[in-house]
Each structure stands twice: as structure tokens, then as C-alpha cells.
Design a protein that fits this description.
Blueprint lengths: L5 E5 L11 H6 L1 H14 L3 H7 L2 H4 L2 H23 L8 E5 L3 H8 L5 H18 L5 E7 L3 H9 L7 E8 L2 E7 H13 L4 E4 L12 H12 L10 E2 L6 E2 L2 H10 L7 H10 L4 E5 L4 H9 L4 E5 L5 H7 L1
Parallel strand pairs: 1-2, 1-9, 9-10
Antiparallel strand pairs: 3-5, 3-6, 4-5, 7-8
Helix pairs in contact: 2-5, 2-7, 5-6, 5-7, 7-10, 10-11
């Protein structure tokens, strides 16, 4: 197997914040061009909302998903401009958490920016509409392993569907499903003595079987979209394995709507492939923190704003 040195990582929902991307757009023209391209693709001034909020609007799934994507791609284009070459020419792999997988595919040359932005707007709308507001929920359970969480889920299923949604890092698993079932799982986790179980402030139960209607919407949308073979390996959420085939990448984007995000396993697989430097591109440092929790003896950097650029370039 080919050995790689660098993993580029792209954040998912939850990292959004008012002001995201503003400093990078002000300091680097390639970033501004990305935001203009996304605005054109969506036929709205998304960047204005990103810059000025309000916060409750930015948290809306249909806004947050393309906004996070745009900020990641702005970081990609700035970095490529500084390097004078595409990210795929850096003996690298890439991966994105949930919606971040769209940024990973765009960075790998599989998706065009405008197409990805439109797909994420459809994805956000479809995910929001799949389950009535309040009928679903998600919760983070800290301190338990997969076997413990599986037992907790088994003890809670009489209250409704509940599944593991994200396996993020050792001792950090997110569950998703019907609100009553998630509430019961929280009680079961506390009864089992796990460190913490807390409901997340999300608008829908992502990455579980309740998202099946949204998966069907995305199956049709992705079938009508142009997706190319990736120019660098993409570690996909649903397989935790490197893929470059356009057909497999397309199928995995459909499956991930209802399937578990296998992030911890993906990080382990990237390290097994030789990656020792992990660079998060986009808003916040959530994925950087998960790398530090999951992997030993690796280097981590992130590119959110212009002040981060020198430290990231030093890793390349």
C-alpha cells in the first residue's frame, strides 16, 4: 500500500460561527472568489449571513452546511495559491466529517464548488424535512466504549429507534434517533455510570434510520450530479477506508445520510496509511481536538483565518 504523509480534514456541522471566513476573504482574493462562487451557485448572499448572522440563522441546517463547506474551500484555495499546486500534489489523503466529506471531495477534484454547494443546500433541506421538529434528538455520551453504548441502545429501543450516529474518538460517541428513545438512552448511560450524557442542540436526528427520506432525496440529486474520480484518496465516513472511484464516492454520500460517521476508525486508518501530519481546513478546531484524542505522536494544525497560514505552510 502507498504510504502518505499528510491528511487534510474538513469539519462538519457544529463548527459554524458568526464571522466565519470573513478574515480570510478580506486578506486573500482566492478565498473571496470561493464565497462569490457559492453565492452565485445558491442565488443568495450566503456570505452576508456568515459575516453578520444572526447566530440562530447560521445554525439552521440549510445555511450551516453550505457555509461550512464554503469556508473549508476558501481555506483550500488560499493554501493552494500559496503552495502553487493542488492539495492532491502533497502526498496526501483527505477526509471530512459528515457534510465535510463534500469539501473533501471538492478538494480532491471530484466535485465542483458550485455543484457541492447546491447539493449541500438540498441535503440540509432534506435532512430538516425528514423528521418533524422535536420528534428526533441526538446526544453525546462520554466515557463509554462501543460495546457499552450498544448495550445502552439495546435497553432503550422499546422507546423508539436509536442508533450510534458518530464514533468520534475514544470515549466520545454520539447517538441519534427518536426523542423518547434518546432520552431513555441518556438515563441508561447515567445509570451505567458513564461520565456524561448530554443532549445536543441540533434540529434533527442526523445519521440514523430516521433520515431515510433525506437519503432518497440525495440519491436522486447525486445521480444527476457530475462526480469524478478523486485525485487523492478520500477516507469515507461510512467505510473508514480510502476511496477514489467516483461511483463509490457517490454511493457513500448517499449512505452516510443514515449511517454512522466512523471518524475514530478513519483517523486510525489514516495513521496506518502513514499520515503523521493532520491539517484541518475550515472553521474551528473540533477535528484537531479529535485527532489529539485519538492518535499519539502526530502533528496537528488548522487553517481557519490568515493568522494560521504560516503554521500550516510550515507543515507542508
Amino acid at each position: 500500500m502507498t504510504s502518505f504523509e499528510i491528511a487534510f480534514l474538513f469539519p462538519g456541522q457544529g463548527s459554524q460561527a458568526v464571522g466565519m471566513g470573513v478574515a480570510l476573504a478580506a486578506s486573500h482574493q482566492p478565498a473571496k472568489q470561493v464565497f462569490d462562487e457559492v453565492n452565485d451557485a445558491l442565488n443568495e448572499n450566503l456570505f452576508e449571513i456568515m459575516a453578520n448572522g444572526p447566530d440562530d440563522l447560521i445554525r439552521m441546517t440549510r445555511i450551516a452546511q453550505p457555509a461550512l463547506f464554503a469556508t473549508s474551500m476558501a481555506a483550500v484555495r488560499v493554501l493552494e495559491s500559496e503552495l502553487g499546486k493542488p492539495l492532491s500534489d502533497n502526498n496526501a489523503v483527505c477526509a471530512g466529517h459528515s457534510l465535510g466529506e463534500y469539501a473533501a471531495l471538492a478538494a480532491a477534484g471530484s466535485l465542483q464548488i458550485g455543484d457541492a454547494a447546491r447539493l449541500l443546500r438540498q441535503r440540509g433541506d432534506a435532512m430538516q424535512e425528514a423528521v418533524p421538529v422535536g420528534a428526533g434528538a441526538m446526544a453525546a455520551i462520554l466515557g463509554g466504549d462501543e460495546d457499552q453504548i450498544t448495550a445502552i441502545i439495546a435497553a432503550s429501543k422499546d422507546a423508539g429507534l436509536v442508533e450510534i450516529a458518530n464514533d468520534n474518538a475514544p470515549g466520545q460517541i454520539v447517538i441519534s434517533g427518536a426523542a423518547d428513545a434518546v432520552d431513555k438512552a441518556i438515563d441508561e448511560a447515567k445509570a451505567a455510570g458513564l461520565r456524561r450524557a448530554i443532549k445536543l442542540p441540533v434540529s434533527a436526528p442526523f445519521h440514523c434510520g430516521l433520515m431515510a427520506p433525506a437519503a432518497e432525496v440525495m440519491r436522486q440529486a447525486l445521480a444527476a450530479s457530475q462526480i469524478r474520480d478523486a485525485k487523492m484518496p478520500v477516507f469515507c465516513n461510512v467505510t473508514a477506508a480510502a476511496e477514489t472511484s467516483a461511483e463509490l464516492l457517490r454511493d457513500n454520500l448517499v449512505t452516510q445520510v443514515t449511517a454512522r460517521v466512523r471518524w475514530r476508525e478513519s483517523l486510525m486508518a489514516m495513521q496506518a496509511a502513514g499520515c503523521q501530519r493532520y491539517i484541518e481546513l475550515g472553521t474551528g478546531k473540533v477535528l484537531s481536538g479529535l485527532v489529539k484524542r485519538s492518535l499519539d505522536d502526530v502533528r496537528v494544525a488548522n487553517l481557519d483565518g490568515p493568522d494560521d497560514l504560516d503554521s500550516v505552510l510550515a507543515e507542508l
